């Protein structure tokens, strides 16, 4: 650990990683109709992800983006393939968060998944959403949410409250109300990791911010099932779309907790540091090649555990998600 870094730790359920793995495998089986596979058996290739627990609909798929690392990258952030001036090929999937494919004009959260092709071989996946925190604080709340969502819609709040209490259930509903919104343009959305990840020896959260100067979005979303794709196609036919990648460092367990994904890491406590630019080049995504790219991206299974050890996900919510991804449900 860096001499100047704040001390941190992960708290494993049952007192050890092995005990927690057994518990989380059982939790994944409680939701998945298929047996939870070993996490190290999760494919990272192009098996069609047609049984996602969330983010069912691919709004836009890009196969030829690039993440351009800043030449002035601070020395403390030089880790693995993140080197000053590095250019990393990237595949991008924009999605609607709903588990059921629906029209883009429906209020919803939006996701951005990014797969980097790294020099050492293999992928490095980033999974983000356009809200700074997660619905569930931890693994137990994620299980309760998934179980409630799978049952009768009219009794979901009562069933959720029976598992996590009325106060936390109301907090989650308030979070949903705030996060389910209309989206005029994906190019103007701000995306966050919402949970921590390792960056070398230090925990971070990361975000992708739209670059200032992007042409303004329409006042209201366009009508139609694929309005986001149509708007993005019109925009990217004229110019590249860019985002800035920024990191926030862990500072202490109260303001930047590892095990509570519902706490916002506020900039006052953890100042975001920009380190790279994501460039989606100008192109035609409405033609034959664009439709081919959409199909290729839709077949990918983005998984935050597809990462070198120096960038592994942290916290119980991420550790449980490892088993859901392994079972092919996300």
Automatic annotation (TrEMBL):
<protein>
    <submittedName>
        <fullName>Catalase</fullName>
    </submittedName>
</protein>
<dbReference type="GO" id="GO:0020037">
    <property type="term" value="F:heme binding"/>
</dbReference>
<dbReference type="InterPro" id="IPR020835">
    <property type="entry name" value="Catalase_sf"/>
</dbReference>
């Amino acid at each position: 650990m860096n001499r100047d870094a704040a001390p941190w730790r992960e708290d494993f359920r049952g007192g050890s990683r092995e005990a927690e793995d057994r518990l989380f495998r059982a939790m994944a089986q409680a939701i998945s109709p298929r047996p939870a596979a070993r996490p190290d058996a999760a494919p990272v290739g192009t098996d069609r992800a047609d049984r996602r627990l969330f983010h069912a609909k691919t709004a836009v798929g890009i196969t030829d983006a690039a993440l351009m690392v800043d030449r002035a990258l601070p020395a403390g952030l030089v880790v693995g393939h993140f080197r000053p001036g590095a250019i990393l090929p990237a595949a991008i999937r924009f999605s609607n968060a709903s588990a059921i494919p629906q029209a883009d004009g429906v209020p919803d959260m939006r996701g951005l998944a990014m797969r980097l092709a790294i020099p050492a071989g293999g992928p490095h996946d980033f999974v983000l959403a356009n809200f700074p925190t997660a619905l569930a604080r931890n693994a137990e709340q994620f299980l309760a949410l998934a179980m409630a969502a799978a049952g009768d819609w009219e009794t979901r709040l009562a069933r959720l409250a029976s598992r996590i209490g009325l106060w936390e259930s109301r907090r989650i509903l308030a979070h949903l109300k705030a996060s389910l919104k209309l989206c005029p343009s994906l190019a103007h959305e701000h995306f966050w990791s919402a949970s921590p990840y390792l960056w070398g020896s230090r925990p971070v959260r990361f975000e992708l911010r739209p670059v200032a100067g992007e042409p303004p979005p329409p006042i209201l979303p366009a009508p139609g099932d694929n309005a986001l794709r149509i708007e993005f196609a019109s925009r990217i036919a004229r110019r590249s779309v860019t985002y800035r990648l920024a990191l926030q460092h862990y500072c202490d367990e109260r303001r930047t907790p590892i095990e509570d994904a519902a706490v916002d890491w506020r900039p006052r406590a953890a100042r975001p540091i920009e380190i790279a630019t994501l460039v989606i080049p100008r192109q035609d995504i409405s033609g034959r090649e664009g439709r081919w790219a959409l199909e290729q991206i839709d077949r990918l299974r983005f998984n935050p555990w597809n990462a070198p050890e120096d960038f592994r996900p942290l916290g119980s919510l991420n550790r449980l998600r490892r088993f859901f991804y392994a079972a092919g449900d996300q």
